[in-house]
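Hey L., structure's done. Input below.
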Amino acid sequence: MASASKSSLYQHLTINKNGKTADLKGKTVRLDYYESLYSPIVTATLIFMDAGGSVDADKAQDSNQRKTNIKDGLPITGLEDVEVLIEHVSGKLNLKRRPLKVNSAPTVSGESNRSSTMLYMTSDPGIKNSNSAIYKKFKGRISDTVKKLLRSELGIRKFKIDSTKNTYTFIGKGQGALDIITSLCRKSIPVKGDPGYFFYETQEGHNFKSIDTLISEGKKNMKNNSYRSTHTYTYSGALKADDENDYKILKPPVVSKDQDIIDSVQSGTYASRNVFVDPRTLKKTEQIYRLGESGASNTLGKKSDLADKLKDGTKTNFVVQDIGGLDADPSVTENNDPREWQAKSRMRYKLLHSQMVNIQVPCNLELVAGDVVRCEFEFPGDKKEEGVVSQQSSGNYLILHLCHHFDTERSYTALTLARDTYGLHTK
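Output:
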């Protein structure tokens, strides 16, 4: 069996413009593909070397139609389609049906006999989003509005939407569809679970999912042992033969964030005081939200005991309620009552980012942003005995950011993982 760290096969790799196609296989020296829970588009960068003689020169530049390099011959000016199909032992990265668009193509190095060009690429919805301004009024369940924006404004038919139970009336204010949907994430409440969504794109399509859904689906699939990411990634500081390292963490994990008690208290992660003002009567009401009372019961690790110890908090939020603001006849109905989501979603997002770690593993094209992966980190020390896995730092993590890297010698996947609580076991 081939090692997952070995170089991958570019089965199909072309750049196309106005019916003119150039093959980038054999010229590409590096390709990096990115997904993120923070991003409604996938992006990629590609570096290719060109010694010339690749395509016919552009007629406007050379009437003799001599052979020239790809950048000058197409020419590459932006919005070209790049089709990618990479085969690997773990699966395929298939971007042929939904080719990436060139956003920028600077020459990174130039010599007398060859040049090196970098392509900055984005998925097509990113281009459409930047070239549109929406001023329409939207009304109804937020999840239905998300579907309407994806279909009517971007022509997207492939997506996974986690239904919301709350409704919201608003006007587009000249934003693009992707920007509008992203702004709705923190205001969305799932049918079951705590407020707080992510809107993101993977190689499988667009997703609008709650934090609780991502965690629940990940843990359920792991329990059933029927999911692509059920393999446990381990770090012990030692690697074996190439074909035995497919689920080893290749480099020491880098912890970019760990629990910060003062920041958590000041930002209202565990408790907050919330002041709501009715604009009709200027009447003020107050509510105290505490993490144990308001949700976040579905966690990646053990249940945290900090909520009980830090139940008073110091964070105060001031909110003017939206009552009938977009209706000709203002009613007493609250427009997406902020008492139901504002403080709670802030708590959920902050708690999820309590711990963040960066790891690098052999390439696994089955992994996508939003997956839950299991990691086991070894205790430091001289004696290596059975059962030395850290019960504190090991456990389930959510993939925030992902990069699949390919070059002429190797392939690997870089992951930024996040977790809300400590512990190897959830019970």
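The CA atoms of residues 93 and 247 lie 19 Å apart. The radius of gyration is 25 Å.

-- N.
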